[in-house]
Design goal:
Layout lengths: L28 H13 L17 E6 L5 H12 L3 E4 L13 H10 L4 E6 L4 H8 L4 E7 L5 H14 L7 E5 L6 H12 L4 E5 L15 E3 L2 H5 L4 E4 L15 H8 L3 H4 L7 E3 L12 H4 L6 H19 L4
Parallel strand pairs: 1-2, 1-3, 3-4, 5-6, 5-8, 6-7, 8-9
Helix pairs in contact: 1-5, 1-11, 2-11, 5-6, 5-11
The structure holds N-carbamoyl-L-aspartate.
N-carbamoyl-L-aspartate (NCD) binds next to helix 2 and helix 6.
Length: about 325
């Protein structure tokens, strides 16, 4: 799999307690299972989310330097459902626009007694850098560049666990723009930690990992071979914002060769589930009928995002 150049070492205290969530490398199966179990406990028998008082003495700040609908809003709802005070920092009008350094802005927010920061940024390792320089707070990585998106992978694992018996015997195909995807990176790590042996990456040349990163997973350029008999299909968006203009594939051509259609999905197991972190681009990476179809669990992933983010916040706060 892709080499992780950014160390997550500081996310665990010398006593073994999780103090930040920066990435999934370095977290054991026990850590991941605990987060999933706490998240499960926050969903009632009818599938509704519970409320908790766990963070009623804490303040959380959302700092999103990149666009987001699902991640930002589910973090906000997770904050509210755990009784935290949560603010969305208005970055378009913040002091960083007046040339204040990000760390100075963060120190200022910490002085407002913020206990936990949720950060999304285009720079790989930015949340790690903040965690190293701001003491006494917890940093949650909500997506850094092409590096990691740990809570997305955790909500994906929770969704898979709700549908499938064990991770070990699953065949999981991740299809699309692998090379630019922090979601793919974190999902591969999570699946490996949880014991999945058959992880397939399906992408055209140019959007696929290099041969070194493909050494411990199965890389396919042929979507039909990649989807054959798999249990889970995770579809990814073409992340054009991370591509050079000249490298952006023609959308119709891409859909013709890699779009998830009914015909292609029929190659997977009949009970295969279809996942997508969103935002979805219908008719580009996924046919509209598949996104809305009975095998799609895309909206369930969104709801699970709240439970997982509540669980992570409670664990970081030492309340679960
Ligand atoms: C993803 C992201 O931002 O990495 N979306 C998300 O968090 N739900 C994937 C994407 O942008 O394609």
């Amino acid at each position: 799999m892709k080499k992780n150049l950014i160390s997550n070492d500081i996310q665990i205290s010398p006593k073994g307690k999780l103090i930040h969530l920066l990435g999934l490398e370095g977290l054991s199966k026990k850590h991941l299972t605990r987060i999933l179990d706490v998240a499960d406990g926050l969903i009632d028998d009818s599938g509704n989310l519970k409320k908790s008082k766990a963070l009623d003495d804490m303040s959380v700040a959302n700092l999103f330097f990149e666009p987001s609908t699902r991640t930002r809003n589910t973090f906000e709802i997770a904050g509210m459902r755990t009784s935290a005070n949560i603010i969305n920092v208005d970055l378009a009008n913040s002091a960083t626009k007046k040339n204040e350094s990000l760390l100075d802005t963060m120190h200022t927010l910490k002085a407002m007694q913020i206990d936990m920061f949720v950060i999304r940024h285009k720079q790989n390792g930015l949340p790690h850098h903040v965690a190293e320089n701001l003491e006494g707070v917890s940093i949650l990585n909500a997506g850094d560049g092409i590096n990691a998106h740990p809570t997305q992978a955790l909500l994906d694992m929770l969704t898979i666990r709700q549908h499938k018996q064990s991770f070990k015997n699953l065949s999981v195909a991740i299809v699309g723009d692998i090379v630019h995807s922090r979601v793919a990176h974190s999902n591969i790590q999570a699946l490996k930690t949880l014991g999945t042996r058959d992880i397939r990456l399906v992408a055209p040349k140019g959007l696929q990992y290099d041969s070194e990163s493909c050494a411990t997973v199965k890389c396919f350029s042929d979507i039909q071979a990649g989807l054959k008999d798999c249990d889970v299909v995770i579809v990814l968006r073409l992340q054009k914002e991370r591509m050079l203009e000249a490298d952006i594939p023609n959308e119709q051509e891409y859909f013709d060769n890699y779009g998830l259609t009914a015909e292609r999905l029929a190659l997977a197991k009949p009970d295969a589930i279809v996942m997508h972190p969103g935002p979805i681009n219908r008719g580009v990476e996924i046919d509209s009928s598949i996104a809305n179809g009975i095998q799609s669990v895309i909206l369930q992933q969104v709801t699970n995002g709240i439970a997982v983010r509540m669980a992570v916040m409670e664990i970081l706060a030492g309340k679960s």
